[in-house]
Amino acid sequence: MKIRVLVCCDESIMSAAMRALLDQQPDIEVMGFTTGRESAAAVAELAPHVMIVVAPALGFEDKSELAELAALTKIILITKAESAHRSVEALCIGVRAVLAPDSSADDLIHVLRTVSAGATMVMPAAARRTLERLPQQGMSRRSARMAADLTPRESEVMVLLAQGKSNAEVAEKLSVSMATVRSHVHHVLRKLGVGTRAQAVAIAYETGLMAAIGRTAEFRGQEG
Asked: In this structure, which topology does domain 3-126 adopt according to CATH?
């Protein structure tokens, strides 16, 4: 089955370039193009698997619109990442991926396929590196409690989700079934009090949970 893609873009030249790129992919079907103001209606009518949103049609400042779209389909947002926190905010409202405008065509196609397959999230490399450093500045009590509440296997799953792995990739990495992965993901979301994998990853970075998971793993190893 082809990946049904809708593009939200206000710039004609960018839209034409996007059409040319996507039409070359045998597994991708372009459902159409829309603008920011018409995007929700277009998603409801065309039911795409993935929607590529190119700023300034919609951007970080359009949180309510992006949240509405994210409830309907998987969103890839192409915009300049003003800060790592802005990328986290986008993920927290349900956006599946944040890409920089200077990302390569190959990167976009890879992210599109990965998001379609159920990957947790993708963000600019610079933003991710910044987020990975944030927990080193201090680990909150909340993150410590969350890390302790996760089982060792759930912690492994959380780390893989943070790397943007799909269920299939997690299953292969851990040598378990897809059903087992889905069960672990369900438990992780429940324990973190979130509804989506992207939100789980965003919270894991923002609260210092990723660092807490590492410290908990070290402690468990010492106990053993």
From this structure: Rossmann fold (3.40.50)
